[in-house]
Amino acid sequence: MSDLNLILLGPPGSGKGTQGERLTEDFDLPYFATGDILRAAVRDSTEIGLEAKRYMDGGNLVPDQVIVEVVAEALDDEATADGFILDGFPRTLGQADALDAELKRLDRALTAVILIDASDEEVHRRLGGRRTCRKNGHIFHVTFDPPKNAGVCDVCGAELYVRDDDKPETITNRLKVYHDQTEPLVGRYRELGLLKRVEGSLPPDQVGDRIRALLATLRMEEEL
Ligand code: AP5
Ligand code: MG
Questions:
Q1: Could you tell me the distance, in angstroms and rounded to a whole number, from the CA of residue 39 to the centre of ligand 2?
Q2: Domain carrying residue 201
């Protein structure tokens, strides 16, 4: 079987992180979520983190060159031999060009770009209630996926926190940035025959089942 090189694309709050965690467990592949990587850099006050923070707090994208280097380094690693899952990258046409160039250099190709779609209204509902575990990053929602005890992670008992960019005005800007700068990637990957759209407004298990089904179909086609 060939390597499984996946991109998770979609508006903020559509469920990329939720499904990314499931896919990582199913396929045992390295998972690179650029938002998580940047938040860790902010927490550790690294040079990249200090630069990224002012963009992230306003819901804007960090400059392409900052994130492209981070992803290129992550992909150029033996751990990705069987494939990888990218969540939140690429997010601009420039980043998509840089990814193409890096994959070409590594003699690799994308398997599929999974678009998890959701309306702006649904995004506001979801991000307003998101809670994330400080320790393991597991994602909850106060209504749609509540933890057993409020504010505490079911998995490890650590504290749950609200992301700095989940304020209503920042969510509105993140959506605008998505529509302006990231949505053009949908057409690009559709033309390349790589785009697989999944309805993200369904419950998480159903979204997960649909993604698994489309990946199984891709595998079958590969074997024919
Ligand atoms: P990032 O962390 O990537 O944020 P995002 O793309 O805005 O996406 P989110 O993480 O907010 O949402 P998600 O789709 O993962 O949804 P989740 O599963 O959590 O990026 C943050 C910032 O970093 C950017 O704004 C930018 O500044 C910077 N950045 C990152 N990458 C960059 C790049 N490549 N270039 C430049 N800058 C970059 O789910 C959300 C909520 O909904 C949760 O509460 C969850 O429990 C719930 N939920 C999930 N699925 C369902 C469902 N099916 N039904 C009901 N509820 C659900
Ligand atoms: Mg996420």
A1: 11
A2: 4-30+77-119+168-223
